[in-house]
Model the fold of this input.
Amino acid sequence: MNQVILAVIASMMSALTLAAENAPPAKVTPVLTRDLEGIAGKEMLVLMVEYPPGGVSLPHRHNASVFVYMLEGTVTMQVQGSTPVTLKPGDTFFEAPGDVHVTSANASSSAPAKFLVYMVKDKGAPASTPMPAVMPGGAAR
Done:
């Protein structure tokens, strides 16, 4: 019975990943990059992220301390091992450097969503790294 349940979950994860791969992409606009004085090798990166209706991002990690501030619309976010949360304007979200961001999606299929991302990261490092979808139990898809 457990194998049947795991097979169903794996099938659902594959379908969700396929849906995410075919969803409208987010528009990411760099707003500011600044070296952090007194913290050698670190920089602050500020991004404006806009999701069209139904927009999602595939699983990824930032290898940075990430602070999100919602401006408009609603977005569902989740890091691996945590419960998903739906953010509305004025809400915040945090990702630690080791977190895998498994869910980032516009919660609406009819209205856009917009938020600011403040990221403290290694100078010159990429802002985001794609990750494989992770199934329950920790296995990669």
